What we know:
- It is built from 20 helices and 14 strands.
- By secondary structure, the protein is α/β, with parallel strands linked by helices.
- The protein has three domains: 5-130, Orthogonal Bundle (Arc Repressor Mutant, subunit A); 165-397, Aspartate Aminotransferase, domain 2, CATH 3.40.640.10; 401-521, Alpha-Beta Complex (Aspartate Aminotransferase, domain 1), CATH 3.90.1150.
- 43% of the residues are buried.
Amino acid sequence: MELTTKGRYAVMALADLASHTGDTAVPLSVVAERQHLPLAYLEQIFVPLRRLGLVESARGRAGGYRLARPASEISIKAVMAAVEEVTKFTRCSEDDPRCSVATPCVTHKLWSALGDSMSKFLSSVTLADLVGDGRYSLHSRSAPVVADVRARTYLDWNATAPLRPQAKAAMIEALDTVGNPSSVHAEGRRARGVVEAAREQVAALVGAKPSEVVFTSGASEANSWILSQPWSTILTSGIEHDSVLAPAKASSANVIMLDVGRDGLVFVDEIANHVLKRGIASPALIALQMANNETGVIQPVADVAQFARAHGVAMHCDAVQAAGRMPINFADLGLDTLAISAHKFGGPKGIGALIIRDHVDLVPLLRGGGQERRRRAGTENVAAIAGFGAAAELARREAADNAKIAALRDRLESGIGEITPSAVVIGKDAPRLSNTTAVALPGKLAETLVIRLDLAGVAVSAGSACSSGKVGSSHVLEAMGWGADVAGSTIRISLGPTTKETDIAVFLAAWRSIAGASALAA
């Protein structure tokens, strides 16, 4: 007996739903992506599954399917019967001259008994047996699982987060939206609806009004936009991302570089000293990141913003690494502008936003159209914006997971310390993102460590991904006052929502073989 496509696909799809239990419905496009099944065929299969009460559907943007009953109450036989899958081993029938109930063939009883056994077996197996630690799960402890030698451990989430399936599904759906968001007909209004729904989701992530969200091609564009305004004075620090430092240095403004301590924190008193005692030319801007991309150190943005507003200085914050990893409330912070990027928390690459406080006027960086309330010309990238919104919504809901990620980071740092006591965790005593570890191993080149970890199947980086092609010490660590021995030997390890204990164990095993006492002695 060989199952037909509909039987196999039905069981695979419902097992997928069973493995993602909860109140949230799962779009069929996500199931199709995870199980590598054709979406159009799944849509047909789910009609009888829903009609017979095995699944239930939810409508709306967050629509999809969920199991109608607990997985332990849905047998494989019920799934097969719902899609009319034949599970018998004999084709005996009333009108078959070769073998019928009246004149059975010589092997009739054999195949009938086998068919009955198959029926009983399929009745005894439920969807719960296929997932988790179920009897027939790939991860069941009752049967050995062959390790995938190609599996890799991804610990470079600060460079980019893997695209979330929900974001991908939203993008695929948006690609079928025909209209231009600026058109007034039904197709255009439909596309506009996708853009505005995503705008609301992004605004909710950072505590802003939807009207304050302006979509850009990414945070580099957003940072360049605000830094290219006609400022007379720009105050920033040496630990900022290159997308802040480069346009600041290219501007005609007087650029004041703020000092940072060895812990990576700026001195609020120094900012006050420049503004109040030394005096600065207006209009002036303070550009300060919320959290550093290499060390994870969190800056006192709220304190600086409060001072800036009290003294008529504009305040911009690069929150690329912070968004989705720590609470952000744009309104409460009192910022004028804030930059974020979708791909850092599971959205697509090439889409970001500049959050602009109401009544703050900026000279457009791009001209030519009336998009984004005449602030940023160019037809909106509807699919990327849809993925951005979906990822932002999920990141906002998963805020509580940061405590779990922090525990994994602490376990990682503890293990590194045990294996290599000489290792230095940068910014360890400062407020840091829960997912980021910058660790130096004096005497070892960072590039060498990254390459050897990569060969061991572990992905980390030696600094900002935007500068990873350059050879040399990190400008961030140099600005913090670390010498070349530390700055040139620091790697960044960054975790994410799907990082597990096993990932930490894999890294530590690789670290021991690469940087442990025996490895160094060799």
